[in-house]
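Input sequence (257 aa), recorded before submission:
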Amino acid sequence: MAAITLSGLTKVFATGVRAVDGLDLEIDDGEFVVLVGPSGCGKTTALRMVAGLELITSGTVSFGGRVVNDVSPRHRDVAMVFQNYALYPHLSVYQNIGFALEQRRLARAEIDKRVSEAARILDLSLLLDRKPKQLSGGQRQRIAIARALIKNAPIILLDEPTAALDSESEQNVQEAFAELRKGRTTLVIAHRLSTIMHADNILVMEGGLVVESGRHEELLRKGGRYASFYRLQLREQEAPPSESDSVVRFPSSVIRP
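Predicted structure, token format:
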């Protein structure tokens, strides 16, 4: 079971900033959920607490009914992709992708098979011998996504996974996401509509809490915060609507004091 339950999840930093404020959330097994909201609304902090990368002030994180507050990130059986890539600079692309499998001491043939398949899906096959410093930001992000793909974890956590990608690379990644999400619970922070609009549930965060939720079309019909931000983004873009609706930006002015 890979359902995620957040109960009264709270994070208060040493500065007194309350980044997440008693967040209650249920994500069903196999559900694809996207977090959106303005900068500083708490979405990244919440995701990091789910991953085990941020200490929890109060409340609980549960996977399949099991509280994991005291479980290390390594043993939470989640695959994570964050904006900073977290690649090993001294390892090749092949070694970076297959690192977790090496640690699990899988057979070389199995590692070769999984790395080759992930590289094929994400168009990395010709880069396997290179080092991260020889690659573009988009290529590095695809390596990070490939690592998540081959880990085969029941829970996937992603923070702006397509932020550094051009349109062609993003299409490749979206196709990989469709495969990656099958049978897995996926929680993503995203602003690109190519990711957002396919979610089972979109959660709009503000002031450390979820203030609106629903599917893309449903939230547009409601005419609330999500719809306002969506319309604002379209007005601010000079490009035609077909190009301008790729990103939804949430103005920071909506954050509560």
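Checked by second reader. The mean pLDDT is 86.
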